[in-house]
Design brief:
9 helices; alpha+beta; 24 strands; 3 domains; three-stranded antiparallel beta sheet; 16-stranded mixed beta sheet; Jelly Rolls
Length: about 425
């Protein structure tokens, strides 16, 4: 299928599409699976001699505005090309203009229109995260820049002792209630039970990540938990009785070890002061993500595999794979039947992934990961779509957003001022 898409693209850019092929081509271009193919081909064309100098992201934003104007006039008289109503392009997209004396101008300009219709912001995001994947993630951090977060957390034992995990050596960290806490070779925390005796009571530990931190934990039953920045999980050092129960704040991704005789339950604390907005997730399957940051407007549970049952007060909902449940602060539960699973777990996979997100939503993520505070001076209604690695310095993310237009940043230490860009 992707080969068909690329063949259509090549024919389109060569001005060889027939009138009958145009509707099929446009429909194919609106499919999410086509975007990466489109970005790669456009990127390759921009590297050609006839379009030299146009692949620099710093030049693209203003040039695209002119491209739309020229393309609108060039295409208005053509009966075989999509006629798309064109106004001022949204500030939240990055595209390009090809000066009219280049022979690729007409085709590439209309390709820009197609990018616009499917969410063109992804092109620059694609370029940046592709380039960053090829670079060494251990990039230098200039004095005025902020490095990305990394694996760091604090373990609080049942007796109140605390262990800073990112600086702890591999091996045994502590012993408590017939259980040994160890730091494994892969950097995760794990638990080794004393096989000689089963504890009558258990101790509880709490693993917490700061802003700018994340961590992975192996629970005593073998279940795996990934904690995002500014999150925590409280859990027993051994699971005994009729259920396995943990409590989280912030955001966590779970892969649960199956045990039908002992259900796994996650208590979600969405507020430190008001328990009425808390909810409970009973695991009937395996892989799911819970986003329960206090500052966000809802608690979002997204299921990847298996099944979970989410309960808040007297309301309950069972989720199937690729479904999500949004629980807002007013107590309402909203089922999303075709959830964007890729976006829900992007953080766990080392990505920022934005889908028509406003700048407030985006800066909340950046604040937690880079451990900075954002201050807004003025307002902007722009929305942004695209993705970039979480392993780049903060300046690269901010430059990307500025290049998309509509927004400007000024960094002073750990404070980032946000203001509308001049139009």
């Amino acid at each position: 299928m992707l080969m068909d898409i690329e063949a259509l693209l090549e024919k389109y850019l060569a001005d060889q599409l027939t009138p009958d092929e145009v509707p099929h081509f446009l429909a194919a271009m609106r499919q999410p699976a086509s975007r990466d193919v489109l970005y790669k081909l456009i990127d390759r064309r921009l590297q050609e001699k006839s379009a030299q100098g146009l692949s620099d992201p710093a030049t693209l934003s203003e040039m695209f505005r002119l491209a739309l104007q020229k393309a609108a006039h060039a295409e208005a008289s053509s009966p075989t090309v999509l006629h798309t109503p064109i106004g001022n392009p949204p500030a939240s997209i990055i595209n390009f203009d090809i000066p009219s004396h280049h022979h690729l101008f007409r085709r590439l300009a209309v390709a820009a229109l197609i990018l616009l219709s499917i969410g063109a912001g992804g092109y620059l995001f694609w370029r940046l995260h592709t380039q960053s994947d090829l670079a060494n993630s251990k990039q230098p951090v200039p004095a005025h820049d902020v490095a990305p977060g990394n694996n760091k957390a604090q373990l609080t034992l049942a007796d109140g002792r605390t262990i800073t995990l990112d600086s702890a050596q591999k091996g045994v960290l502590a012993s408590q209630t017939h259980t040994t806490v160890v730091k494994l070779d892969n950097g995760r925390i794990g638990y080794q039970a004393d096989q000689a005796e089963s504890p009558a009571t258990v101790a509880f530990n709490t693993l917490s990540t700061p802003r700018g931190g994340q961590y992975q934990l192996s629970l005593p039953d073998g279940s795996q938990v990934w904690l995002n920045a500014a999150s925590s999980i409280r859990y027993p050092t051994a699971f005994i009785g009729k259920e396995r129960r943990v409590t989280i704040t912030g955001e966590a991704y779970f892969e649960i070890a199956p045990d039908p005789a002992m259900p796994f339950i996650v208590d979600v604390r969405s507020s430190t002061t008001d328990s009425k907005n808390d909810l409970q997730v009973q695991v009937l399957g395996t892989h799911f993500n819970i986003d329960a940051y206090v500052e966000d407007s809802s608690v979002n549970t997204t299921l990847l595999e298996g099944a979970v049952r989410v309960t808040r007060g007297a309301s309950a909902q069972t989720l199937s794979p690729s479904q999500a449940l949004l629980a807002n602060t007013q107590g309402r539960l909203q089922l999303v039947t075709n959830a964007d699973v890729r976006k829900a777990v992007a953080w766990k996979n080392g990505r920022f992934l934005f889908q028509d997100d406003d700048i407030t939503t985006i800066t909340r993520q950046l604040s937690r990961w880079y451990d900075v505070d954002f201050q807004f001076e003025g307002t902007t209604s722009d929305h942004y779509t695209g993705q970039i690695s979480r392993q780049v310095n903060m300046s690269k993310v901010l430059k990307m957003l500025e290049a998309a237009g509509g927004i400007s940043f000024s960094v002073q230490g750990k404070v980032v001022r946000v203001s509308p860009a001049a139009r």
